[in-house]
Amino acid sequence: MKLSNIVTIALDAMGGDYAPACVVEGAEILLRRYNNVRFIFFGDRNKIDQLFQIHQTVEAFSEIVHTDVLVAPHDKPSVALRRGSKSSMRLAIDAVKEGRADCVVSAGNTGALMAMSKMVFKTLPGISRPAIAALVPTIKGDCVLLDLGANVESNANELVQFAIMGDAFAKTVLSLQSPKIGLLNVGSEELKGHDEVKEASAILRNTELGLNFYGFVEGNDIGNGTVDVVVTDGFTGNIALKTAEGIGKMVSTYVANAFKSSFFAKIGYLLAKPAMASLRKTLDPRRRNGAMFLGLSEIAIKSHGSADGYSYYFALKVAVEVVSNRINDKILEELKLSLG
């Protein structure tokens, strides 16, 4: 895909279970699909250079900033903030703040990445708190779910802000002109739910934003694809996401065991193999990698910590799309409308 302007991505090359290999491999896959993309790798130069010998295409489009300091997976955010000023994660974030890169991508410690990004970037004008947004599969395609854990509790105004940001994210990543937005609740009736959710619903119904607000949705509506954007607080959103992932793995295990249960079941598997391959591709969680910290003044993308190169590519793809489509400008435009 041709890009009109160069997009420079700052990479925390040491973040993730399979770093830096997954980072370099993901960058190579991205270069096969996009031109005008550049990378700044922050991490151990020797390890990255060795990987460049295997993925030679990447080297021509990259520079390396060496550091042997990294944020450990289980470091508390407060510890990372105090001791991680020279870490690969922090240096990548600083590169965006200084204007040397357009966005940062990391598969490292989520709490540390959020804490560092929020401290360095600050939030957009009109945004109280950032939210983590990502794609989840439905029977109708993908939908955006937020917040996925940045905020344990959220008041009505913050939920409205999440709806505005989720709308912009869906327009950018899913190419939807008018995404349908729903508030996650314990029922679809207007009288159900706690006060914050009911107040947020009232605001969204009466707003001049022009958002396509559907109303309340329940947990089963996520998988049914009832709406394109599901808005909730981070506590509920994280549980909903992890529950869906667990059910997906459980169903996959049941299906695999069923096909192994007898000789005729194995014959059935051979006949169904093409359909099963298509299903695996559709439900492959690697294809939905790349959660954005919406609401920050700069772009920060979180990759799954267990990402391989193919999965990391999708996080990079999200980064390119949100930068190229100027997602923060879209959020600010909608916020301006909401403020009158």
Tags for this model:
globular, 340 residues, 11 strands
Q: What helical percentage do the residues reach?
A: 40-55%
Largest sheet: 11 strands, mixed
What is the multimeric organization of the chains shown? single chain
Q: For the largest beta sheet, what order do the strands appear in spatially?
A: 3-2-1-4-11-10-5-6-9-7-8
What is the mean pLDDT?
Answer: 91
Q: How big is the Rg? A: 21 Å
Shape: globular
Number of strands: 11
The helix count comes to 13
Q: Separation of termini?
A: 38 Å
The share of residues in extended strands comes to: 15-25%
Q: Unreliable segments (pLDDT under 50, ≥5 consecutive)?
A: none
**Helical/strand content category:** alpha/beta
Order of helices and strands: EHEHHEHHEHEEHEHEHEHHEEHH
Produce a short descriptive summary.
By secondary structure, the protein is an alpha/beta fold. It has helices at residues 21-33, 45-54, 56-59, 77-83, 88-97, 110-121, 156-173, 195-206, 219-224, 234-259, 263-283, 309-324, 327-338; strands at residues 7-12, 37-43, 62-66, 103-106, 131-138, 141-146, 180-184, 212-217, 229-231, 291-294, 299-302.
What this model shows, in words?
It is a single chain. By secondary structure, the protein is of the alpha/beta class. The protein contains 13 helices and eleven strands. An eleven-stranded mixed beta sheet has the order 3-2-1-4-11-10-5-6-9-7-8, sandwiched between helices. β10 and β11 form a beta hairpin. The longest helix is centred in the last third of the chain and has 26 residues. The chain is globular.
